[in-house]
Design a protein that fits this description.
Layout lengths: L7 H11 L11 E6 L4 E6 L13 H20 L5 E4 L8 E6 L14 H4 L16 H13 L3 E3 L3 H19 L2 H9 L1 E2 L12 E2 L6 E2 L20 E2 L6 E7 L4 H20 L3 E5 L6 H4 L11 E9 L12 H4 E3 L1
């Protein structure tokens, strides 16, 4: 398809789909530019939306932008376009994360269009899941989704799951002892109190989920230690079903690939009827992150912990209007 076919309304609709992607604390750290002369859609990271205390290397920022990039690819294929992505096209411009052309060959990943319906349905669920086990064939499909994006999805065994849960507990203690980290989280959560940030970003209180009676499942408590009116407590699944997403390397390109894989896994899980949530808390501390990997696996670096299962699906969290994240040049 020639670049001239990318009209403003079409590009706007593509970005509307792309920004449904998850990002750390729903900070939405992305900016898009449509170069009308070439038809290229550029993806840029926005360091002003980074987390200097929880994400000093901007790894999580890249993951979120990678997820938005994958959503753009899904949206393009759904509309009969053929996206071709070039990651980090200008080494001297590290925040220029990707270029997307939509005049690629017809044999581009046509299966991506199947995932489009899940873009608007995928929401993080911080509610209890049942103990029902996920069928092996579903897990295998999620592994394939990660593999198609150049990443690995590992389902930990019993001892590894226990290790991950120990890291979750340790990260909660680290976080509780770090005033700067707690302040950063508070800046991106919305409880309805005066002076909070805009309602188009961050995590609203309705998405916190209930408090856990005892921490048996890796769900971050965004409501602690503040009081959120009407927030209940509940018992969560005792044997959480986890999956770890990782890559061999740990470079910005690896992070962007992992972000795309993260979104592909989440969208496939949504189509499979699974509820999902993400846990990065133990990966935000360098002294804990290395212990998250299974030494027997091919994963060199873990980028995200998935919690998967059957249970209530979360509600949509707010998004910034496209006019704030998309420019035409």
């Amino acid at each position: 398809m020639p670049p001239t076919a990318l009209t403003r309304p079409l590009v706007t609709s593509l970005i509307e789909d792309a920004v449904t992607a998850p990002s750390m604390h729903n900070a939405q750290p992305w900016k898009f530019v449509h170069r009308t002369s070439t038809g290229v859609i550029e993806l840029h990271g926005d360091p002003l939306r980074g987390m200097p205390h929880e994400d000093p290397d901007h790894r999580a920022l890249h993951l979120g932008c990678g997820a938005a990039l994958f959503g753009l690819r899904v949206a393009a294929v759904h509309r009969g376009l053929h996206p071709v992505v070039r990651l980090l096209p200008h080494p001297d411009a590290p925040w220029h994360l990707a270029d997307v052309r939509v005049d690629g060959p017809d044999d581009a990943d046509s299966e991506l269009g199947i995932l489009h319906d899940a873009l608007s349905r995928r929401h993080t669920s911080r509610f209890p899941f049942t103990e029902e086990r996920i069928p092996t064939e579903v897990i295998d499909g999620l592994r394939t989704a990660a593999f198609l994006e150049g990443c690995r999805l590992v389902v930990p065994g019993a001892w590894h799951t226990d290790t991950v849960m120990d890291l979750v507990h340790a990260s909660e203690l680290f976080e509780a002892a770090d005033e700067a980290v707690r302040a950063e989280i508070a800046a991106w959560t919305r409880t309805g109190a005066a002076g909070e940030g805009p309602g188009t970003e961050g995590i609203p209180s309705y998405a916190f989920g209930p408090r856990q009676y005892d921490v048996t499942s890796p769900v971050r408590d965004f409501g602690a230690p503040r009081q959120v009116p009407g927030r209940a407590s509940a018992r969560f699944e005792k044997t959480p079903q986890l999956a770890l997403l990782g890559t061999v390397g740990d470079t910005p390109e690896d992070w962007l690939k992992a972000g795309q894989a993260m979104d592909r896994v989440l969208l496939q899980a949504t189509l499979d009827g699974l509820a999902t949530s993400l846990m990065s808390q133990p990966l935000e501390w360098p002294e804990l992150r290395s212990d998250a990997r299974d030494p027997g696996s091919t994963i060199g670096f873990v980028h995200m912990v998935f919690r998967l299962g059957y249970g209530p699906h979360g509600r949509a969290t707010p998004r910034r209007p496209v006019s704030e994240v998309l420019a035409f040049d």
